[in-house]
Each structure stands twice: as structure tokens, then as C-alpha cells.
């Protein structure tokens, strides 16, 4: 048989038909198994600065930081921590659920990567001793990178239903000392294991996305601090949210009453609240019960971020964790646990011995989240991309969380004075070819460290 274009086209068409047949059979099967977050965990550095102290040092009314911006504390990384060490640390609790031969990808979403070429996923892959058959890649689009990684992972698992994908969203948010953005800095990482039949949250295949080239926030490759048009970025965040939310509600014939809770990307906790209020104000049929419920659940979703700050790619998922782990948790009745300083401004450390993660809380007006509840999630990455998507809670999701470990990690952090924070901030490895040896004194409570940079190569232990 001679090859002609006609033959090729007809063979191609036959093949396509065959592929489609196979795909539709497989899709029918895959659709029956939910895909989403099987396990989710986070980490944050062991050090923090109190934002009331910082406000006083900057001669600003502390209420601007704690009320106007909505932040109480900020995690501060020592110079032996970067997004590689934070990412590996966040993933540690998930390793016992990883089936070695099933893990097919490790995707890191970050905008504070350590190399312009090599993926941070490869360093993490080595630190965690993962199998060599897993693809290791890094995704970048500002704070949206974590969602891009999650969506890529879910799409992969929908096609390869026996596989697992590890998603890590890790960042250190730096704007600089004495800048308007300083109060919104932070550091941390969220790790998520994505699989079929997940234990925590089914990710529904219903995203609405908006992308548009704007200049609201960016970071040139030669510096480690971000540049922002602060107010413009906050306006764009709300505009993107309203656009994707409106389209989502039209496409899915639903409204805010249909959601048990909404979670937002949280550059600072007041930001999501502004967006939520804007949507509620423009909603024609929002019931009073739904309005109060959404506000109460929003408040719960901001507890961790209020104490950690912006962790860029991981912020939305830190909000989700805060909601799932603190909702219905009796410790929430004690403001000191999740909002230190609320009862006593001098308080710095809280005991957590009585935490029970799945009991109901008398002080909550609304019943705890339960299996089948639908949660809306808004992801925003400057530059900019906005995406609204939803998740459905799985049966027994509370038992799959690491709530007490997370609360204990937060409450056992060490407080820095403002001058200690400034010294730590300035001690970071510089963007230059000089050798660097990291601090050996701040190595508490973490397993992985950036030990040194020699001849422009990073050495982790
Ligand atoms: P600012 O100019 O310092 O603050 O910048 P302000 O003057 O706008 O005041 C902030 C709020 O505090 C205002 O409330 C004031 O009224 C209030 P609002 O009108 O907004 O509701 N206030 C007080 N409240 C109580 N008592 C007082 C008092 N004084 C004032 N005494 C800004 C704030 C957030 C703009 C700044 O910190 C900044 O530039 N941050 C960085 C950029 C940012 O976070 N943008 C958010 C949207 S973009 C995004 O989310 C993406 C991002 O995560 C990056 C990525 O995608 O990779 C940032």
C-alpha cells in the first residue's frame, strides 16, 4: 500500500474514532470515581513577629494592621529555610499515604523559586526520597501557581485513575522592611496528595477562569522582593472574583445560598472579606441565614492566615485547611487559640492540650460542615488569573486531617522582637554568586535545611 495524504487522513480518522471510543468508555468509568484532595497538610517557619509590635515600631496605629488589614502575626523564615525545605516539610505527613509505584508526578507551584531553570520539585523529590518514575516540575503564575498545579494533578488522575500526584504550593512573601506590603508578608507551604476516591475533598470539574495581562504585582528575576501597585491589585482581585463568580453562577444555575462556605486566596484576611461582601451585596436573593453563615465560615477560614501572613500559592489552601480543621472545633470558642492577643495583647503562646477535631462547638451559630457540603474556592494570581471552582466534602473528611498537629505547630512558634525579625529578614542568601553558609542556630522543629550555597550550587540537608 502506498501512503497518500488521503490514506493518512483516513487512517488518522479511524484512529481518532477508536481513541474516542476508548476515551468515552474510560471517562464514563472515571467519572464514577471522584478525584480530589486525599490528604492535605501545611507548614510554616518556627518564628513569627507580632504585628502590633511591628506597627508600633513603624509608628502606625496597630488597629490598621489588626483590623484594617486583618493580620495579627507574621511567620518569619530563618535563612536556612526556603521554598524547597518548606515544601518538603509540608509533605512529610503525607508520605505514609503515598503508594510509591503509584506516585506519577510532583508539581510545585511557587513564585519564589530558588533557580530560574531547575525545578524545585527535583530538590524536594530528593529530600523526600520519592521514586524516580515521578515527573518533577514547577509551575509559575504568581499566587495562582498552586491552583494550576492542583488542576493539572486532578486532570492527570482523571485520566490515570490509579495514580497519585503530589502537589506542593510553597512561598516566602517578601516586600521589604518599611514598605506598604511589609504587613502582608509571610512564609509557608501546603502539600496536597491528589488521587481518585479522595478522603478530604472532591474537586469538581466546573472551573470558570479569567486571564488578562495586567501589571498589579510582579517580581523581576534579579530581586527577591515583590513590587506591587497595592490598591490597584486589591481592586483587580475583587473585579476578577465578581467576573468569574457571576459566570460560574450563570453556567451552573446556582447562587450563594447553595454554598456551605467560600474560601478565598488570602493576601491579607480583609481582602477576601471585601470580595465576599461585594458578591453578597450584588446578590438579589441571598437569605439572611446564608449571609450570616458565609460570613461565619469565612472568618473560620482566615484564622491560620491571620497568624501566618500571605504564603502566595498556598494561601487559598491554607484558608481551606483553616476552615476544615477549625470548623466545629471547640477550641474556636477560645479566641486565644486561633486569634492570640484578642483577650490579652501580651499573650504570645497558647496551650492546645484539649483539642478535639471532630466535636461540635456550642458557640457556633451554624452546624459544622458535613459530607456532601459544597465549598466554593476563589484563586487569584497577580498578573493576572482568577479562577472559581468548587469542592465537595467527602465522608469522614475530619478524620483525614492533621488539625491538632497544625494548631500545636502554630502555637509553639517562637516570637521575635522587631529587631530580631529585621536581622533575620536581612540575613537571607542574596541573589549573587557569592558562597553562603546558613544560620546554624535557628534549626528548631524542622527536618530539612538549606545548609550552604557553594560555587553557586545549593546544598540541602
Ligand atoms: P496601605 O496603603 O498601607 O493601607 O496598603 P490603606 O491605607 O489602604 O489601609 C488599609 C486598610 O486599613 C483600609 O481599610 C483603611 O481604612 C484601614 P479598607 O478601606 O481597605 O477597608 N485603616 C485602619 N483601620 C483601623 N484602624 C486604623 C486604620 N488605618 C487604616 N487606625 C495594601 C495596604 C494591602 C495595599 C498593602 O499592604 C500592599 O500593597 N500589599 C501588597 C499587595 C497586596 O496584598 N494586594 C492584594 C491583592 S493582589 C493579590 O492578592 C496577589 C498577591 O497575593 C500576589 C500574587 O498573586 O502573587 C499579592
TrEMBL record:
Binding site for (3S)-3-hydroxy-3-methylglutaryl-CoA: 61, 175, 274, 310
GO molecular function, one term: hydroxymethylglutaryl-CoA synthase activity
Domain Hydroxymethylglutaryl-coenzyme A synthase N-terminal: 34-197
One protein family per Pfam: HMG_CoA_synt_N
Residues annotated as the enzyme's active site: 111, 143, 265
GO biological process: acetyl-CoA metabolic process
InterPro entries: HMG_CoA_synth_N, HMG_CoA_synthase_prok, Thiolase-like
Keywords for the protein's UniProt record, in alphabetical order: Transferase
CDD domains: init_cond_enzymes (cd00827)
Record's protein name: Hydroxymethylglutaryl-CoA synthase
Protein species of origin: Gardnerella vaginalis
Amino acid at each position: 500500500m502506498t501512503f497518500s495524504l488521503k490514506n493518512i487522513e483516513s487512517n488518522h480518522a479511524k484512529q481518532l474514532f477508536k481513541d474516542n471510543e476508548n476515551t468515552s468508555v474510560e471517562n464514563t468509568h472515571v467519572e464514577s470515581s471522584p478525584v480530589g484532595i486525599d490528604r492535605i497538610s501545611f507548614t510554616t517557619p518556627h518564628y513569627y513577629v507580632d504585628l502590633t509590635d511591628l506597627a508600633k515600631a513603624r509608628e502606625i496605629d496597630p488597629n490598621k494592621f489588626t483590623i484594617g488589614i486583618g493580620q495579627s502575626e507574621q511567620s518569619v523564615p530563618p535563612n536556612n529555610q526556603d521554598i524547597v525545605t518548606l515544601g518538603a516539610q509540608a509533605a512529610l505527613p503525607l508520605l505514609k499515604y503515598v503508594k510509591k509505584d503509584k506516585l506519577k508526578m510532583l508539581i510545585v507551584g511557587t513564585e519564589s523559586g530558588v533557580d530560574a531553570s531547575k525545578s524545585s520539585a527535583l530538590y524536594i523529590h530528593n529530600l523526600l526520597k520519592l521514586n524516580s518514575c515521578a515527573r518533577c516540575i514547577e509551575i509559575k503564575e504568581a499566587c495562582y501557581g498552586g491552583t494550576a498545579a492542583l488542576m493539572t494533578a486532578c486532570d492527570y488522575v482523571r485520566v490515570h485513575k490509579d495514580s497519585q500526584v503530589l502537589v506542593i504550593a510553597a512561598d516566602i512573601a517578601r516586600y521589604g522592611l518599611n514598605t506598604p506590603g511589609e504587613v502582608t508578608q509571610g512564609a509557608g507551604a501546603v502539600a496536597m496528595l491528589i488521587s481518585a476516591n479522595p478522603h478530604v475533598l472532591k474537586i469538581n470539574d466546573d472551573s470558570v477562569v479569567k486571564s488578562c495581562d495586567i501589571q498589579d504585582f510582579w517580581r523581576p528575576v534579579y530581586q527577591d522582593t515583590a513590587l506591587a501597585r497595592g490598591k490597584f491589585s486589591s481592586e483587580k482581585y475583587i473585579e476578577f472574583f465578581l467576573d468569574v463568580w457571576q459566570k460560574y453562577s450563570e453556567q451552573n444555575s446556582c447562587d450563594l445560598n447553595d454554598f456551605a462556605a467560600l474560601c478565598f486566596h488570602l493576601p491579607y484576611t480583609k481582602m477576601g472579606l471585601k470580595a465576599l461582601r461585594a458578591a453578597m451585596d450584588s446578590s438579589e436573593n441571598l437569605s439572611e441565614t446564608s449571609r450570616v453563615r458565609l460570613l461565619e465560615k469565612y472568618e473560620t477560614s482566615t484564622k491560620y492566615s491571620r497568624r501566618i501572613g500571605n504564603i502566595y500559592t498556598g494561601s487559598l489552601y491554607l484558608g481551606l485547611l483553616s476552615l476544615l480543621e477549625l470548623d466545629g472545633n471547640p477550641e474556636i470558642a477560645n479566641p486565644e487559640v486561633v486569634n492570640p492577643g484578642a483577650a490579652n495583647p501580651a499573650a504570645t503562646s497558647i496551650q492546645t492540650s484539649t483539642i478535639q477535631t471532630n466535636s461540635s462547638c456550642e458557640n457556633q451559630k451554624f452546624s459544622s460542615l458535613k459530607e456532601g457540603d459544597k465549598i466554593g474556592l476563589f484563586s487569584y494570581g497577580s498578573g493576572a488569573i482568577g479562577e472559581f471552582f468548587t469542592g465537595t466534602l467527602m465522608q469522614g473528611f475530619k478524620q483525614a486531617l492533621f488539625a491538632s498537629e497544625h494548631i500545636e505547630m502554630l502555637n509553639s512558634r517562637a516570637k521575635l522582637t522587631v529587631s530580631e525579625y529585621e536581622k533575620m529578614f536581612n540575613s537571607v542568601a542574596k541573589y549573587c554568586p557569592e558562597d553562603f553558609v546558613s544560620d546554624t542556630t535557628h534549626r528548631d522543629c524542622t527536618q530539612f535545611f538549606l545548609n550552604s550555597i557553594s560555587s553557586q550550587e545549593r546544598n540541602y540537608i
